[in-house]
Amino acid sequence: MKKYDKLIINSIGRMVPTEVNGKPQIPFQGVGKHIPEGRKYAPEISSCSNFPSDGNKLVGSLKEALLKAGLKDGMTISTHHHFRNGDVISNQIFDIAAELGIKNLVWFPSASFECNACLIKYLENGTIHHIEGSMNGSLGSFTSEGKMAGMGVLRSHGGRYQAVQDGEVHIDIAVIAAPTADFFGNANGVDGPAACGSLGFALVDSEYADQVIVVTDHLVAFPCIPWQIQGNHVDLVVQVDQVGIPEKIVSGTTEITKSPDRLFLAELTARFCEVTGIIKDGFSFQSGAGGISLAVAEYFREIMIKRGIKARFARGGSNKYLVSMLEEGLVEYILDGQTFDLDGVRSMRENPNHVWTSPFTSYNYHGKGNFASLVDVVILGATEIDTNFNANVVTHSDGVLLHGIGGWQNCLFSKTVILTVPLFRDRIPVIRDEVTTICGPGELIDVVVTERGIAINPLRKDLIELTKNSGLPIVSITELKDLAEKICGKPALPAFTKEPVAVVKWVDGTILDTIWQLQE
Amino acid sequence: MNNRIATAGNNGEKDRSDCFVSLELTPFGGIQIDLSSKVKALYGQTILSLCSDVLQFFGIENAILKVEDKGALPFVMTARIEAAVKQLIDTDKEFLPEMLPENLSSSTRDQRRISRLYLPGNTPALMLNAGIHAPNGIILDLEDAVGVSKKPEARFIVRNALRSINFMGAERMVRINQIPTGLDDLDYLIPHHVNLILVPKCESARQIQQVNQRISTIQEKAGLNNPVWLMPIIESAMGVMKALEIAQAAENVVAMVIGLEDYTADIGTQRTAEGTESFFARGQLVNACKAAGIQAIDSVFSDTSDMDALKENVLRSKALGFDGMGCIHPRQIKVIHDNFAPDEKEIENARKIVQAFIEASEKGIGVVSLGNKMIDAPVVKRALRTIEMAVSMGKLDANWAENIKK
């Protein structure tokens, strides 16, 4: 299998491979340009007569389940990040595979976290060939150094769904770690000791994988209600002692920032939305899980209370702040893709207006529409933004791959996309001539808010008009870049070899950019 | 030659935008720079050549310089190296970063000083973005916010900050150390266009005169004549008793501050939220300031999480006659501004008085009256000040008078 082949320049000017891990690839063609034809990939036909009529699919252990599922060399194994840094099952799967001497697996997680750094040893000894999914922290550095046998493939949450539907990724075995399940395989995330909220990221795997294993530490008698994952898709069920570490499910970025500079940024962002009339009765919004985004939601709340405004819905990432807005009646519905804390879990369990969603409903490119484009405003972050408004979320300015894409790319289809970022972090300018890696094309990014000025994309004449004489510090993106360089100095470009180590997919499955190996 | 190792800077777990340097002068072997930096990929070369430049500037030819960098801006790094160099060699030379043109501006005697944000003088990370919070003044603090062992190196950071950081229109103030130590601080400040000096634990007019003498000497030598205002801080029973003398000590004293932590300790009591124990001191200070025609500034409010209590405190302070208050956290600035600003009732009253005054002047009548009440000249003056403040703080439209006529 070739790691990559034939590099060409795509429509946004980036050098990308046309073959990755032995599969042909389509270079990025422009936003909304790639419209594939034909039929969606379909899973194998299954027949209920092959399954126990008493509905009991329980097997003794995860190892037994993997063996029954036919685990062998070269398979693609999928897992999910609902437990975030409290994930334990992904690591166990590869411990078992290594013990069985299985090689060249492809890991297809919905995201990785630092708790998965221990898998590096399996990337080194050939148990895992490569990762298609986010490579965070240590796994990212490992990839950047060119140590992974295959090419990393980075996809958005929506892109992951699209890749499975396109048949680009064929999942041999999906392992769904579920906080609650019954013996039939119905499962949910809202009950049980490791309750984590939505299980939406596992939906596509349950529908398309050849073999689906549900693993739980909280087995209930049939029926498991609600069934976020339907047992009819599930082959095998395993009961274990612990499916996730509850205290690590709440990740560190779910608290509002205390930094006065970042609070200032959040307040400025909210003021922008107030001045431009984005915050109006019946509007909708989404903000991410980072400290600044959470603070933006708090300032939204203040403005909404002051002006007597209610939002029709908010897209989550839900957390205690959003939940309290729901409970106070400031937000009518939360459409939740990922539950960030236990208040979110409780609300999803108890409140019918707190609805769990999946990348299919929210982000999927092969759906007949998705929710992302219905959202009035989304507030996101970025590691870098360039003077063409292109933005990066996966690599840092020193070239190291450190983050996944998450739902970030999918959110760019919102009516107004605001990136709220500090002008510089320590000495590192965030606004650059050119981003290290393009994850989002500038045409989709409307506003960049920094503590020293707000730049509006020239394509958004309406916003430029609305902010005239508003007292908001409106500047050009070039002015922001110049100011950042005046304060920090002009940074050198990172030194790369000519070896690609990972690719960034656009939401439609085409290749947007390449991540290169770092020079030593 | 002194062959011990000199160090400067911070490299604690939480320190950012700073660096820690250690310098050892060696008999031979040339310059050896050992750099570890979180921004090495982006600025490694720039940092190495900057380090060499500084050492060369001080005529150092053989040395081992170790730099542990956490994203320090160039002016921070050069301040750290200079601080280390000056522990080892005796020199009058200064490695000065370029002066930003905006930092050559002067402030005025009567400019508004409602909020002044204290920033520890040896913590550059907190200074870089201080201007975005738009306090009326920023205070780079060389006194209580800097540990004794860090005081010498803080002078270089503060000096370089005065030249290199754009504070976005905030008045550039420095709190020096207690006199007489504080007099030496002035050498690092006066040539670099500091706008105002806070003189802590002030107890006599004599101390103010000492500060002024030193300022004149430095300015003369540097060929400068920009105004440098003084703001004595009254923090003791003696200071309170001498308040008027201090307020009138010199032409350039523009405001006086009460420092209640030290004051309450001095009179042997505890500081309370109600402030009964400092009622006399605050009253005395306000009175002395008003008698001398300068601004009266209240003590900082130390609970940075309780904005409601801060608001209460500001309203009490305003009622006592204070013109402003110190802040120790940027989030306090807005609360202080909003509550020192005239409220609607004050604005409405002032508007009526000013209107009556305008009408009277137009008609050439010397006496201003509102209804059947005579309005004295000082009342008119205060009303004009209230209106001016309301307009500049966005609480009243600048064209309010014309709008009413229409």
Short description:
The complex is a heterodimer of chains A (520) and B (406). Chain A is an alpha/beta fold and 520 residues long.
Uncertain stretches of chain B: none
Q: Which stretches of chain A are poorly predicted, pLDDT < 50 over at least 5 residues?
A: none
CATH topology of the largest domain in chain A: Glutaconate Coenzyme A-transferase
Strand runs of chain B, count = 14
CATH architecture label of the largest domain in chain B: Alpha-Beta Barrel
Work out the largest interface and the residue count of each chain.
A-B, 20 and 23 residues
* Beta-strand residue fraction of chain A: 15-25%
The tally of structural domains of chain B comes to: 3
The CATH fourth-level homologous superfamily of the largest domain in chain A: Glutaconate Coenzyme A-transferase
Shape of chain A: globular
Task: Report the end-to-end length of chain B measured between terminal Cα atoms.
Answer: 80 Å
CATH architecture tag of the largest domain in chain A: 3-Layer(aba) Sandwich
Strand order of the largest sheet of chain B: 5-6-7-8-9-10-11-12
N-to-C SSE series of chain B? EEEHEHEHEHEHEHEHHEHHEHEHHEEHH
Secondary structural class of chain B: alpha/beta
Broad shape of chain B: elongated
Computed CA radius of gyration of chain B, to the nearest angstrom? 24 Å
Q: What can you tell me about this protein's structure?
A:
The complex is a heterodimer of chains A (520) and B (406). Chain A is an alpha/beta fold and 520 residues long. Chain A is built from 15 helices and 29 strands. Chain A folds into 2 domains: 162 residues, Glutaconate Coenzyme A-transferase, CATH 3.40.1080; 246 residues, 3-Layer(aba) Sandwich (Glutaconate Coenzyme A-transferase). The mean pLDDT of chain A is 94. Chain B is an alpha/beta fold. The relative contact order of chain B is 0.08. Helix content of chain B is 42%, strand content 17%. Chains A and B meet through helix 8 of A and helix 1 of B.
